[in-house]
Amino acid sequence: MDFNMKKLASDAGIFFTRAVQFTEEKFGQAERTELDAHFENLLARADSTKNWTEKILRQTEVLLQPNPSARVEEFLYEKLDRKVPSRVTNGELLAQYMAEAASELGPTTPYGKTLIKVAEAEKRLGAAERDFIHTASINFLTPLRNFLEGDWKTISKERRLLQNRRLDLDACKARLKKAKAAEAKATLWNDEVDKAEQELRVAQTEFDRQAEVTRLLLEGISSTHVNHLRCLHEFVESQTTYYAQCYRHMLDLQKQLGSSQGAIFPGTFVGTTEPASPPLSSASPTTAAATMPVGPSVAGLAPPGEAALRLEEVTPPASGTRKARVLYDYEAADSSELALLADELITVYSLPGMDPDWLIGERGNKKGKVPVTYLELLS
What Å distances lie between residue 250 and 128, 181, 272, CA to CA? Predict the structure, then answer.
């Protein structure tokens, strides 16, 4: 019992001494041991890493789950160490509503058939989103959280210990200084100075040991950056896969809807494969069309909705043609289009009345419409 009381009294004395030293430093009434420039740089880099990791983590969580209530629910499940229940994505919910609407409004009607097709596409989009969220959470969010909840807490703990050791060291320096000043006035025995010097040596040793431990942890931030770099690459890879899947699903849907629309509205030219969000190209559709040679008007190339394209009547314009390199494989949806293979070279030109997102392409004795966004126009 007496031992515990003495220990509590000792701890209280140490805390009071540190508080006095800290306060005097703030008011400029006490000297302070400064860390070297390299150590200060390590501290600044660690703080910056922690702050930006928190921001990136929070915003990635918003990206993957925009609903704040759902994020709070997932956070609580994680803290309780329980499995987060599976949640239907917005795309899957939309697919469910469309399928139910088609069933009630008539699955054999044109509207009902289209609802079913779109519902199937939305369901695939929802499944792709679910896979992306799962992969990004494991490969990107989890390592960031592990750093903040593991390594950073350890670093913070050791930094607090270092701060306490520094306060103890500076307090010992102050005591020794006062002891020597009193000795000079012959008001203090030499053994008090010896005691203060001994306490200073002990405090210096503990400070140096703690500084080395903290330095090693701070230098480990470089390994953290390497790990986060790898995780970032994996996040980009999963995001690329997700958007590629979405693009393929929507392109397939657009082809289906184009064929259906042509059957429902015969005599109407329908761009069945014109991508709503095509792959990036070196030239935008509008710019490419504006720089292409334009020939005289040809029968069959009236504005969309007036007549179908008759390839046998299409001839290159007198102003000339251009070469283009194919960026992506493209499968022709009908006989008016030209199938493409990535990296091949074709001849292209534009004609009045054409949709600006399309050109006439020729390869040997074959010709047909090609989407501008799949091409790199060569000078």
Answer: 12, 84, 12
Q: Which tokens in the block code for residue 113?
A: 């058939």
Structure tokens at 351: 């004609």
Placement of tokens 């540190």 in the chain: 18
Q: Are 279 and 374 in contact (CB under 8 A)?
A: yes
pLDDT band at 351 (very low <50, low <70, confident <90, very high): confident
Q: Which two tokens stand for residue 43?
A: 């501290």
**Cβ burial, residue 354 (10 Å; 0-12/13-18/19+):** buried
- Phi, then psi, of 168 in degrees rounded to 5: -60, -45
**How do residues 150-209 score in pLDDT, each as one tens digit?**
999 999 999 999 999 999 898 888 888 888 777 666 655 667 888 888 989 999 999 999
Least confident of 74-88, 225-239, 256-270, 316-330: 256-270
Which two three-digit tokens encode residue 18? 């540190």
Tell me the three-class secondary structure of 179-223, residue by residue.
Answer: HHHHHHCCCCCHHHHHHHHHHHHHHHHHHHHHHHHHHHHHHCHHH
Strands 345-349 and 375-377: unpaired
Task: Mention every residue, 6+ apart, whose C-beta is less than 8 A from residue 299.
Answer: 307, 310, 313
Residue 58 one-letter amino acid: R
Geometric angle at alpha carbon 102, from 99 and 106, rounded to 5°: 150
What's the CA angle centered on 17, arms 14 and 19, to 5 degrees? 110
Q: What values do phi and psi take at 333, rounded to 5?
A: -85, -25
Cα separation, 136 vs 57, in Å, equals 11
Would you give the end-to-end CA distance of the chain in angstroms?
92
What is the rounded distance in angstroms from the CA atom of residue 108 to the CA atom of residue 86?
33
Return d(Cα 270, Cα 97) in angstroms, integer.
28
DSSP string, 331-349: --SSTTB--B-TT-EEEEE
Global pTM? 0.61
* Full DSSP string of 135-191: HHIIIIIHHHHHIIIIIHHHHHHHHHHHHHHHHHHHHHHHHHHHHHHHHHTT-S-HH
| Residues in contact with 258: Cβ distance below 8 Å, sequence separation at least 6, in sequence order | 270, 271, 272, 273, 333
Most confident of 262-266, 280-284, 363-367: 363-367
